From TrEMBL:
Main localisation: membrane
Annotated Gene Ontology cellular component terms: plasma membrane
Source organism: Thiobaca trueperi
UniProt xrefs under Pfam families: Virul_fac_BrkB (PF03631)
Keyword terms: Cell membrane, Membrane, Transmembrane, Transmembrane helix
Coiled coil start-end: none
Membrane topology: Multi-pass membrane protein
PANTHER family tied to this protein: INNER MEMBRANE PROTEIN YHJD (PTHR30213), UPF0761 MEMBRANE PROTEIN YIHY (PTHR30213:SF0)
Subcellular location: Cell membrane
Upper classification of the organism: Bacteria, Pseudomonadati, Pseudomonadota, Gammaproteobacteria, Chromatiales
Protein name, per record: tRNA-processing RNAse BN
Keyword presence, NADP: no
Regions crossing the membrane: 56-75, 115-134, 160-182, 202-223, 235-255, 261-294
Length: 458
């Protein structure tokens, strides 16, 4: 037990002992990478990624045939429906012969499912099953990106319709181009001299990796209900693409020596292997999404915990810091703060900053500004003149927030406890002596306007 505590203390000192901006550049990159690996292992150990991947496996098995049926109906009108089977064979290639059998059965189910004769109830059930898969994927990605607000219903309806009607055409057309490129590379490898043939062979091997990486990047950019930076999405996608290639090779090696496994489970082995491979695929996709998230939001790597747990003292400090910086920007006429910029500047996870912003908005101290771009984070300004907002009122709102909902005020404290509370509030009022939010904003104006990090360090 003592050795475990010693190891944990050493890990804390190594990864979180000093802030990244106080380290040399080369050292800060290694420390950041160590924090990232720890965060991914922590998420896997806590079961969040595995739980999401498992739920997506179930939804995929339920929605796979209806999704392919809808895609097949759309693709048939464009004359590219013949690309469905090669794509499935390529996706299930690590399964070997069982993968070919699974593809054959799935295509058989799709061929037998005629959308035109399903009827209104059958067609509605088919569409509902497909939409549930898309909605589940969006929920998982939003959870990975700590997004609590879903897209508006009208926006979701239009985007889901676009995915169902336009997505299959673009996706399978891209796959067809990739296949043609691979065949062209193979032909050039046979005809080219040995030196050039090596380069073309390398290009042929990198082609599938780049295609799957670009597909992952597309998912990371457009599925979450938040603005994702293309650089973060690309980094997560490249790592996920590499994991996909490595996992495919390892799974193929496992299938080569799985005769005993096939003998034990007999006909169920194909279904089990199919489910395992789907689980691996979703896990890789979610790991890449987590990497993209942590790259874009390094403040979530500032502590060992996935979300920073604030004490009452730090919650009050964060409230004053956030309110003061917003008021300072308002006084100087500079662009208002949003939660993402505040979190990055203060070095605090965005969920904690958003909680404080929601607290101040619900208690009437801040006002949310609507942005012209629906995908842009809302910005905040003081709800009234900063000179009319007392610091004591801000602290009282922070300390009392949520009491009405929880019903704690219904229980009258003991007389002695109530006297101590009155003395504390009287002492705070006398100490603050009418200090307003404008006074606080002017005292912290240089850091608030320049965006210098380090105002809040738990």
């Amino acid at each position: 037990m003592q050795s475990d505590q010693s190891l944990s203390a050493r890990l804390d000192a190594l990864l979180w002992g000093r802030p990244l901006d106080a380290l040399p550049r080369w050292q800060s990159r290694f420390v950041w990478l160590g924090r990232l690996v720890y965060a991914l292992l922590r998420d896997l150990a806590q079961g969040n990624l595995s739980l999401h991947a498992t739920s997506l496996v179930y939804t995929t098995l339920l929605s796979l045939v209806p999704l392919l049926a809808v895609s097949f109906s759309v693709l048939k009108g464009f004359g590219v429906h013949n690309q469905v089977e090669p794509l499935l064979l390529n996706a299930l290639e690590p399964l070997g012969e069982p993968g070919v059998e699974i593809v054959t059965r799935i295509i058989g189910f799709v061929d037998n499912m005629q959308v035109g004769v399903l009827g209104s109830v059958g067609l509605a059930t088919l569409i509902f099953t497909v939409v549930s898969l898309i909605q589940k994927v969006e929920q998982v990605f939003n959870d990975t990106w700590r997004v609590t607000a879903p897209r508006p219903f009208a926006q979701r309806a239009s985007q889901y319709l676009s995915v169902l009607l336009i997505g299959p055409v673009l996706f399978f057309s891209t796959v067809g181009l990739s296949t043609s490129f691979s065949r062209y590379i193979d032909a050039q490898t046979l005809l080219a001299p040995e030196s050039i043939g090596f380069l073309t062979e390398m290009a042929g091997q990198l082609g599938p990796f780049l295609m799957i990486s670009l597909t992952f990047a597309f998912c990371y950019l457009f599925i979450p209900n938040t603005r994702v930076q293309w650089r973060s999405a690309l980094i997560g996608a490249l790592v996920a693409g590499l994991l996909w290639e490595v996992a495919g090779g390892m799974f193929s090696a496992f299938m080569t020596g799985s005769t005993r496994f096939m003998a034990i489970y007999s006909s169920l082995a194909i279904l089990m292997l199919f489910m395992i491979w789907i689980h691996i695929g979703w896990s890789i996709l979610l790991i890449g999404a987590s990497i993209a998230f942590y790259h874009q939001h390094p403040e979530y790597l500032s502590t060992r915990a996935s979300d920073l747990s604030l004490s009452n003292r730090l919650r009050e400090r964060l409230t004053l810091t956030v309110a003061g910086r917003i008021a300072s920007r308002y006084d100087t006429g500079k662009p208002a703060w949003n939660s993402r910029d505040l979190a990055r500047t203060l070095g605090v996870p965005g969920a904690n900053v958003q909680h404080i912003l929601n607290l101040l908005e619900r208690t009437g101290f801040l006002l949310r500004i609507a942005q012209p771009d629906p995908g842009e984070d809302p910005r905040y300004v003081p709800a009234r003149a900063p000179e009319t907002i007392l610091i004591g009122d801000l602290l009282a709102a922070t300390r009392h927030f949520g009491e009405d909902a929880s019903g704690c005020r219904e229980h009258r404290p003991d007389s002695e406890v109530e006297r101590i509370e009155r003395d504390i509030e009287r002492a705070m009022t006398e100490t603050l002596n009418g200090l307003t939010l404008r006074d606080l904003a002017r005292s912290m104006a240089p850091a608030a306007t320049a965006g210098q990090p380090g105002a809040v360090r738990p």
